[in-house]
Amino acid sequence: MSSTNTTGTAKHKAGAFDIRNIIGLLLAIYGVILLLMGLFGDQARDRTGGVNANLWAGIVLLVVGGLFMLWARLKPILVPEHVEHDGDDADGHGHQTHGGGRPAH
Amino acid sequence: MANSLPALLAPRETLIQAGAVDYLILSIYFAFVLGIGFLARRQVSDSIDFFLSGRSLPAWVTGLAFISANLGAVEIMGMSATGAQIGIPTVHYFWVGAIPAMLFLGVVMMPFYYGSKVRSVPEFMLRRFGKPAHLVNAISFAVAQLLIAGVNLYLLGSIVHALLGWPMWVTLIVAAAIVLSYITLGGLSAAIYNEVLQFFVIVASLLPLTLIGLHRLGGWSGLEAKITAAAASAPPAAKVAPAAEQLHSWPGQALSGFDSPILSVVGIVFGLGFVLSFGYWTTNFVEVQRAMASDSISAARKTPIIGAFPKMFVPFLTIVPGMMAAVLVSEIGQLKNGGTPAGGSSGNGVTFNDSLLLLMRDVLPNGLLGLAITGLLAAFMAGMAANISAFNTVFSYDIWQEYVVKNRDDGYYLGVGRLATVAATLIAIFTASIAGGFSNVMDYLQTLFGFFNAPLFATFILGMFWKRMTPHAGWAGLVSGTLAAIGLWVASKFGGAFTLPGQGLAFVCASTAFIVDVAVSVAVTMFTRPKPASELVGLVYSETPVADRTDPLEHTYPWYRRTVPLALVALVMVIALNIAF
C-alpha cells in the first residue's frame, strides 16, 4: 500500500485475501479433518450419546465453508488501486492527514 | 522452587486428553492467523493503519469482529460459569445488559466517534474537556486494561494447564510468552481478520457441544427436569437457587442477589441494563475501534447493530452449556451442592470457571475437542492481545506523547508502544494472579466495570448532550465517581457495612458511581466556565451539523441496510426472547 495520491480509479479483485475465501478455506479444511475422524477415527459414542458428532460437524463445516467461497466468487470485492489511509477529512475537524478525499462509493 | 525445570514440565495426569488430531487443528489455526498477520504487516505504513487498519471494511465484517473482540474471557468462561451457578437469569447480560446498549451505540453515539476520528476514549476526553480529564481517564483506562488482560491471561493459562498439566505459575509465563509472540509476529495487525475467523471457529465448536449435550440430556425438557431434580435435592447449606429461578429470566433474584422481585428487576434494569452495560459498550474502545475500521458512517453505525444479531444468540452457546455442565459433569454438580472437588484447570480445586472445559472433556470426541480448544485459546489470546494493544495506544499516545516526551516522530512513539507491550504483558502475569482468586471471573469483571466504565459513561453522556458542561466538571466527575464505587466496594468487602450475594454489589457500585459522577459534574459546572461553542463542533450533539453525523447515501439503501430499521428489528427480537424465557 503506498500513500502516493494517484487518480485511483483502476480496481482489482481481492481474490485470495478476500476474508470470505479465508474463512471458507479454514472451515473447509476443518470439515475434511472432522469428516475423516468421523469415518475412520475414534467416534467416542459413549461421550456423545451415540451420535457420530465428528462426521456431522465435518459435513456442516464443509457446506458452510463452500458457501463462503461461493459468495466470494459470485460477488467479488473490488479493491481500488490506491487505498486511502486516513482520508475522509472533508468535514475539516483539524486532523492532519496525508490522504485527501476518499473515493466515492 | 526446588524442582528443576524438566521435572516441572514432565508429562503428568492432565484434565483434558488431547490427541494428535486436536493439535493438528490447533496448529492449522495458528498457521492461518500468523500467515495473515505476516501479509498484513508488510502493508503497514504508519500508526493510523497500525491501530485501525484503514477504513475499508464492509459492515458485516466489522460487526462480527465487534462481537468477537468481546467474545473472550467475559463471554465464554464467565457466562458458562454463571450459567452453571444460577441458570437462565444469566441471559440478562445479553438481552438487557448488551443489546440495548449496542443499538444505542450504533444509532446515537457512533456518528460522533466516526466523525471526530478519535483513536481512543481519552482522546475524546482531551478534545471535549481538556487535559485534566484526559489524564485522569487515560490512567484509569490503562489500569483497567492491565487488570482485564490479567483475566484473559489467567483463563488462557488455565487451558494450557488443563492440556499439559504444568503448574499454574509456569503456564502463566508460557501463556504470556505466546501472547507476546502473537503480537510481535503481526497477529494483531490483522486483528479484524482473526476475530472474524475466531468467531466461526468458536461457533463451530460450541454449537456441537450444546447440541450433543442436549441430546444426552433428552432435549430442553430433559435439561429442565434434571435442573429441577438437582435443585430439589441440593443441601440447604449450599444455597442453590430454586429451580423456578434457575429456569426463568425474570425477576432474576439469583443474579441480582436481592430478595424482593421488584428491587431485583430495578437492580437489573438500572444497574446492569443501563449503567454497567451502556458504560461498557459505549465507551469500550477495544470494540469501538472495530467500527472505526468500516468504510462509511453508515457502516460504522451498523457495526454494533449487525453485531447485536449474533450477540443475542450467544447465550445458547455459553450459558446453556454451563447449565448442562451443572447436571452432566459430576465435579460441577458437587461444587454446586457445596462440595469442594479436587483438580480443576488451576489444579487448586474445581471452580465454576471450569464448567465449560469439563463439559468438553465429557462430551466431545477428539477432533471436535481440538476445535473447541482452538476456539478457546484463540478467544483468550485475541482478547488479551486487544487489551494490551489498547493499553499500548493509550500509554504511548495519550500519556507518553502528551505529558512526558513531546514532539517526536511517529517511529519514536511506535518504539515506546513496543516497550509498553512487553511491560504490559509482564504486569498481566501479576494481575492474572488477582483474577485467579475469584471463583467466578464474572464477579471480578463486573466489579472492575463498575469502577471504571460506569463513571466514564456518565461523563460521556453528559458531555455529549450538555454543551454547558465545563472542563473541570469533566475530571471532577470521573474522579469522584470512581472513588465512590471503590469506597462502597471496600466498605462491603472489608468493612462489613452490608453484603449482597451474586453480582448485586457490582450493580450497586456501578449505579453509585454513575449518580455521584452526574451530581458532581452538575455541581462543578455551576461554578466553572464552559468551553466556547466553536470548540465543541463534532463533540457535542447540538453543536454538530446534521451533515457531519449522517451518511449522504443512507437513504438510498434498502431498509435492511439502513441503521434505524435494523436496530428496530433487533429490538423486537430481543423483546421476544425476554418474553419466551
From TrEMBL, chain A:
The entry's protein name is Uncharacterized protein
For the region Disordered, what residue ranges are annotated? 85-105
Q: Where is the composition biased (Basic and acidic residues)?
A: 85-94
**For this UniProt entry, which segments traverse the membrane?**
21-41, 53-72
Q: Which organism is it from?
A: Arsenicicoccus piscis
Keywords recorded for this protein, A-Z: Membrane, Transmembrane, Transmembrane helix
From TrEMBL, chain B:
Q: How does it sit in the membrane?
A: Multi-pass membrane protein
Q: Which UniProt keywords apply?
A: Membrane, Transmembrane, Transmembrane helix
Q: Which domain of life is it from?
A: Bacteria
PROSITE patterns per the record?
NA_SOLUT_SYMP_3
The keyword Transmembrane belongs to this UniProt entry's keyword annotation: yes
Q: Mainly localized where?
A: membrane
Presence of the UniProt keyword Transport in the record = no
Spell out the CDD domains in the cross-references. SLC5sbd_u2
* InterPro entries reported in the protein's UniProt record: Na/Glc_symporter_sf, Na/solute_symporter
Q: Name one Pfam family in it.
A: SSF
Q: Which organism is it from?
A: Arsenicicoccus piscis
Protein name per Swiss-Prot or TrEMBL = SSS sodium solute transporter
As for family, the record states: Belongs to the sodium:solute symporter (SSF) (TC 2.A.21) family.
Q: Which residues cross the membrane?
A: 20-40, 60-81, 93-114, 135-157, 163-184, 196-214, 262-283, 304-329, 368-391, 412-438, 444-466, 473-492, 504-527, 563-580
Q: Show the taxonomic lineage.
A: Bacteria, Bacillati, Actinomycetota, Actinomycetes, Micrococcales
Question: Which locations, inside or outside the cell, does it occupy?
Answer: Membrane
